[in-house]
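Copper amine oxidase, Paenibacillus lycopersici. Tokens?
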Amino acid sequence: MKFRKLLIATLALSLWGGTMLFADSAAQRVRVIVNGGEIADAGIFTDGKTYLSARQVANTLQSLVFWDEGSKKVTIYKPNVHMFLFQDKAIFGNVVKGSKITFSVFAQIDNLLTDISSVKVSIVDPGGVEQVIQSKSVSVDKDNFWYRTDDYTYTFASTGKYTINFFMKVTASDDWNLVSQKTITAKTS
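Tokens:
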């Protein structure tokens, strides 16, 4: 009797395990690494092909992604966004901890191959707290433009890396898409 129960349990577990192995071999998770960072649950491998999440890849590459329901087409746009930080007329990138600085962010945007409705610039402190520097609706009818924020006063209260983020929206109802980052390092003297 014990032998029969053991045989049935072994057979059931073998069938279950074989089914799970078949399912796993039919569609395998793929690790996707971009610039040394892994994108969580970004890809699967099935039938000899690798499939990636367009939204996750676009976000990692700091791009705009657009879904056209009518044509069932995903388009990814990667504008070139170069940011410069100005304190008065001087460019800066590092500060002393505790400094209270009034600065503006200047962005040069080119290779913009789609219309956008607005831009936003923010700063994130080493603890992850984000503050919006400026957000503005824009109307751009060319592939390049410049954008400069108003003067912004900020206190770099702790040591570490502060990140300036530049976002764009394709349409007013879209989510913000991060398209560029700049780092400021605050050090003790």
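The first strand starts at residue 28 and ends at 34.
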